[in-house]
Amino acid sequence: MRVLVLGIGNVMFADEGIGVHFTKMIEKNFKFKSPEHTLSFIDGGTLANLLSPIIADFDHVIVVDCIDADEANIADVYFFDFEDMPKSINWSGSAHEIEMLQTLEMMDLVGDRPRTKILGIIPKRIDPMSFELSNEIKKGVPVMQKVILKHLESLGFKYEKVADFSISDIANDWKKEQF
Q1: Which positions ≥6 away from 4 have C-beta within 8 Å?
Q2: Is the pTM of this model over 0.70?
């Protein structure tokens, strides 16, 4: 089975970039092994529809993003099957969030969407031209990490911690690379 961890978001809009930063953090901090499966990590940014051919090449996809949900608190973490989405998820966040939903729905229509899980966290700030993650969302990262490691383990992956980069380290490195 080919598994993809797909980080989505705009890193220039504060907490909106959590999916991209989190995916990179997991990739840098852990080494994954499976005798029968492959694991890939991709920074999907805000590309949404352009990701369809990439997503279709995998058997299992985990989309990591900030999400919006009714009556949720900042940094609440959600993990669910795309087919069994909680009713509280309202997809009323950013434009890329809505485009990602539409992309997955279009892939469903043509039969190209692999099994899809969503790992989402409620953001505090989505500010234009801010690379800084809020302290609240940083506190939710350990929960996200536990969830994704447990899920990957359930798929047959063994993992070893090889580094200890924080989410802030990753976000700050990205900022340095761009400027």
Answers
A1: 39, 40, 41, 42, 54, 55, 58, 60, 61, 62, 114
A2: yes
Separation of first and last alpha carbons in the chain: 38
Q: Which CATH architecture has domain 2-171?
A: 3-Layer(aba) Sandwich (3.40)
Sequence ranges of the domains in the chain: 2-171
> Which residue is listed with tokens 């009323």?
92
How would you label 130-145 residue by residue, b for 16+ Cβ within 10 Å and e otherwise? bbebbebbbebbeebb
Beta strand spans in the chain (E): 2-8, 30-33, 38-45, 60-66, 77-81, 115-121, 158-161
Residue-wise pLDDT tens digits, 66-114:
998 888 999 999 999 999 988 888 766 666 567 788 888 899 899 999 9
Rounded Cα distance between 104 and 117, Å, is 11
Pairing relationship of beta strands 60-66 and 115-121 according to DSSP bridges: parallel
Task: Give the separation between CA 15 and CA 130, rounded to whole angstroms.
Answer: 9
Q: Which residue carries 């009556």 as its tokens?
A: 71
Q: How far from the centroid of its chain's Cα atoms is residue 136's Cα?
A: 17
Residue partners of 159: CB distance under 8 A and separation at least 6: 30, 31, 32, 33, 149, 152, 153
